[in-house]
Design goal:
It is a single chain. This protein is mainly α and about 200 residues long. It is about 80% helix and about 0% strand. The chain starts with 11 loop residues before the first helix and ends with a helix.
Length: about 200
């Protein structure tokens, strides 16, 4: 461990953890949203609230970044971590919003599976964030998230194949693809986040 005369600011770690735990809550609500037609408006409102909470966490990290003299790791990596956490939340909330705005009813089963993969990414990420403080036992985290994201890619391709199979009319295809794209972007953002953690671990090792 490099010796430093200046103590590093440790207040980032609980902020990263809180942001990741917010994603666990959001993906759980999204799972309810996908399956419970009758409560979609209510659940979309809960997602908007969680998105606001996520924004507050992100802004808190950025404020801390701007006022800290010595950060626990590179500033650009802290910025990337916070931005990717925020991106996941934005994509999750956007997916639900699009379902409401376009008046979609029953969604393809593959979308429920997409959300289940996002739940697994969120839980894995929330469990990993506290370990940033020591940077120990993190390789299992980024390996697992990359594995889940590969699974999400395959699922997304299967969903697209189904959308273009003739089962859906042209307008519904456009609506469903917009939602599927947001869910796929959320999975990608989880992978980007894991890649940043891997980069930090390599730099600090």
């Amino acid at each position: 461990m490099p010796f430093s005369l200046s103590p590093k600011d440790s207040s980032f770690y609980p902020l990263f953890t809180a942001s990741a735990e917010n994603l666990v809550a959001a993906t759980d609500v999204l799972s309810e949203f996908i399956h419970d037609h009758a409560r979609r408006e209510e659940l979309a409102g809960r997602l908007r609230d969680l998105e606001h909470v996520g924004d507050q966490h992100t802004h808190a990290i950025f404020r801390q970044l701007n006022t800290s003299f010595v950060t626990p790791f590179d500033r650009e990596d802290i910025y990337s971590l916070a931005s990717n956490l925020d991106d996941v939340m934005d994509f999750v909330e956007a997916a639900a919003d699009l379902v409401i705005l376009t008046g979609l009813g029953t969604l393809p089963a593959e979308m429920g599976q997409q959300v289940a993969l996002l739940q697994r990414c969120a839980q894995t990420t929330a469990e990993a964030m506290p370990r940033l403080k020591t940077l120990k036992d993190l390789s299992d985290y980024w390996i697992e998230v990359n594995r889940i994201e590969n699974e999400a890619d395959k699922l997304y391709r299967r969903l697209l194949s189904r959308l273009y199979s003739g089962e859906f009319d042209a307008l519904e295809i456009l609506k469903l693809k917009e939602v599927a794209d947001q869910l796929e972007e959320a999975a990608d953002a989880f992978e980007h986040l894991a890649n940043v953690v891997e980069t930090i671990a390599v730099k600090e090792s």
